[in-house]
Amino acid sequence: MIEAKNLTKRYGEKTAVADLSFSVEPGKVTGFLGPNGAGKSTTMRLLLGLDRPDSGDATIGGRHYQDLPQPLRVAGALLEAKAVHTGRSAYNHLLCLAQTQGLGTKRVDEVLELVGLKEVARKRAGGFSLGMGQRLGIAAALLGDPSVLILDEPVNGLDPEGILWIRTLMKDLAAEGRTVLVSSHLMNEMAVTAEHLIVIGRGRLVADCSMDEFIERSGALSVLVRSPDAEALKEDIARAGGTVTQSGAGELTVENLETGRIGEIAAAGGHVLHEVVPRRGSLEEAFMELTRDSVEYGATGGTGATNGKRGGTA
Ligand SMILES: Nc1ncnc2c1ncn2[C@@H]1O[C@H](COP(=O)(O)OP(=O)(O)OP(=O)(O)O)[C@@H](O)[C@H]1O
């Protein structure tokens, strides 16, 4: 279990994280979302004791990360910027890490196998592609067989096969009862990976709820209607208070009215219906809707500021 209590972190004038509280439960993948510059990486660094909060507290399993005697056995992390000694082989990189925690060479071989780097284990990590570097970072996170995983953009640089692999891995790790906190900008990927969401904007909590609840809360619901009488039906639906747009020949998209009510309107007007399908909004739509006021570096209406963040290392 990860706990953040009233975390606040300032960099000069800039408040990166503001009075942020949440807890991450074991047994499910929790997605950590927020627009660029929202404070996700800073929060992860605070959780891992890589930065000190100005106020508040961050604990993993009830203890500060920096107080854990063998931290890799409790929490594994992948942060955005990699800290691999470029001259070292993947094997030696992991072996050095393992030795600091009293872990043997057997575990190094196991994680190399698990992340699919066995064949290139003796090659210089500096020559690795972005995707291979991510796999090595994930291997390092898994080295101590930890009960908590904190992964910042783990799918970054991975090809479709790699993305599917990490998705399955995260779900399996959660199903084993581990706590998995993962950030990503890929909404479609998050939608099929995370069960719970913590969403922040401008360093503050925007939502802490299940994926389903988050999408429902945004109100991004519509109904797809197919009818040979689309033109006439469209007028009846609009008269009944529905927001209706013609999305194709004989196809309508209706907002503000539920499927049952649309069926009643069609029956009352004698319109034939071929299809009435409720359409749940996407995570992307919900995210855009609920974080609209928290976007710091948007394409329009922004301040023109650039993201002046510094890379972190783990
Ligand atoms: N070391 C630092 N010094 C100064 N400002 C920083 C530092 N680290 C982060 N910031 C600022 O704090 C804010 C939050 O940054 P952070 O990297 O945590 O956001 P993020 O949600 O991870 O963003 P992204 O999605 O772009 O990776 C940003 O405005 C960033 O510029």
DSSP strand (E) fraction?
25-35%
From the alpha-carbon coordinates, what is the Rg to the nearest angstrom?
24 Å
Task: Could you tell me the CATH topology label of the largest domain.
Answer: Rossmann fold
Instruction: Please state the second-level CATH architecture of the largest domain.
Output: 3-Layer(aba) Sandwich
Return the CATH class of the largest domain: Alpha Beta
Specify the overall morphology: elongated
Q: State the helix count.
A: 11
Q: What order do the SSEs take from the amino end to the carboxyl end, as H and E?
A: EEEHEHEHHHEHEHEEHEHEEHEH
Which spans of ≥5 residues are poorly predicted at pLDDT below 50? 300-314
Total count of strands: 13
pLDDT averaged residue by residue? 87
GO molecular function, one term: ATP hydrolysis activity
Protein name: ABC transporter related
Keywords: ATP-binding, Nucleotide-binding, Transport
Pfam families: ABC_tran
Structure report:
This protein has helices spanning 40-47, 71-74, 90-100, 105-114, 130-142, 160-175, 187-193, 211-217, 230-239, 259-269, 283-290; strands at residues 2-11, 14-24, 29-33, 55-60, 75-78, 148-152, 179-183, 196-201, 204-210, 221-226, 243-248, 251-255, 275-280. It has 314 residues and is of the alpha/beta class. The protein has 2 domains: 2-216 and 288-294, P-loop containing nucleotide triphosphate hydrolases (Rossmann fold, 3-Layer(aba) Sandwich); 221-280, Alpha-Beta Plaits (2-Layer Sandwich). A 6-stranded mixed sheet has the order 5-6-7-3-8-9, with helices on both faces. Strands 11-12-10-13 form a 4-stranded antiparallel sheet, covered by helices on one side. A hairpin with a 2-residue loop joins strand 11 (243-248) and strand 12. The structure holds adenosine-5'-triphosphate (ATP). Adenosine-5'-triphosphate binds next to strand 2 and helix 1. It holds the Pfam family ABC_tran. Residues 2-227 form the ABC transporter domain. One of its GO terms (molecular function) is ATP hydrolysis activity.
